[in-house]
Amino acid sequence: MSEESDSLRTSPSVASLSENELPLPPPEPPGYVCSLTEDLVTKAREELQEKPEWRLRDVQALRDMVRKEYPYLSTSLDDAFLLRFLRARKFDYDRALQLLVNYHGCRRNWPEVFSNLRPSALKDVLNSGFLTVLPHTDPRGCHVLCIRPGILLGSGDRWIPSNYPITENIRAIYLTLEKLIQSEETQVNGIVILADYKGVSLSKASHFGPFIAKKVIGILQDGFPIRIKAVHIVNEPRIFKGIFAIIKPFLKEKIANRFFLHGSDLNSLHTSLPRNILPREYGGTAGELDIATWNAVLLASEDDFVKEFCQPVPACDSFPGQPLLPEGLISDAQCDDSMRAVKSQLYSCY
């Protein structure tokens, strides 16, 4: 072998580097490990068209579509993250891709809700008792999200809009949904909403005008990977007719059919949500309504939310030639959110 070849083989730039000093390849994203029980795997196959033997192939197909059609979209492409969108759209690639794009578009277009979305920024709302997740699931395995817009626990007071805007309540809802959807069990089973409207007055209802209603419903239906299996309304006053009149035009028929109004008839509620999973406030046997446990779960996830929602959006994160909002979701400039018109509609319920 020539001296030149020997010198190349023992080039100081290489030979002087120890194994510990050699540049390391970028780390591979964590591989997906299914956490579903056998029963949930069967349920996902039957209800969501999810085939375990094709699961990673389907994820890769969605990942390839994102890279091809939305190369500038700043999004996670991890298996577990993309699976949320495939499951929410029953493994229809095109619909899952649109849901993913809508999800990021909604976050960009409603910064009042999604910017700096972290538990510590919402302590006042969380401590008020506005919402919590019940400790027990319903018979179908759905977590129950309990929302009480008219009640502040402990103090006996009510939500006062001047204390903080309704968008803070909406932020708390999405914070909770983001945490819930991390669970594969929730991705398959979906959730149930229990909304208690006791204490909701005309002045409070008027803050939930058509602009806010359309945005919230548009995101829940077309911009978030969650399956809402039922919405149970209890203790609704007459004013709720006006609230529902505002909401209903924006609901898809399938979702509208999942609304159940029980009034003060808790026996009616118990036909869907059994007493053994409900707190005493709703005629249940599961003890007092506990908000502290769920609040602790959220606060323990502070770092995850900071990483996901508190980072600057890259300048290249855009959707050239593509709509940023789900169909039916409108921008501020496109919506006449006339409070006078809303109050007039609500007054007509009395």
Automatic annotation (TrEMBL):
GO cellular component: membrane
Protein name: CRAL-TRIO domain-containing protein
PROSITE patterns per the UniProt record, alphabetical: CRAL_TRIO (PS50191)
Biased composition annotated in UniProt, kind: Polar residues: 8-19
GO MF annotation list: phosphatidylinositol bisphosphate binding
Domain CRAL-TRIO: start-end pairs: 118-290
CDD domains (UniProt xref): SEC14 (cd00170)
Pfam families per the UniProt record, alphabetical: CRAL_TRIO, CRAL_TRIO_N
Segments of this protein annotated with the region Disordered: 1-30
Alphabetized PANTHER family for the sequence: ALPHA-TOCOPHEROL TRANSFER PROTEIN-LIKE, ALPHA-TOCOPHEROL TRANSFER PROTEIN-RELATED
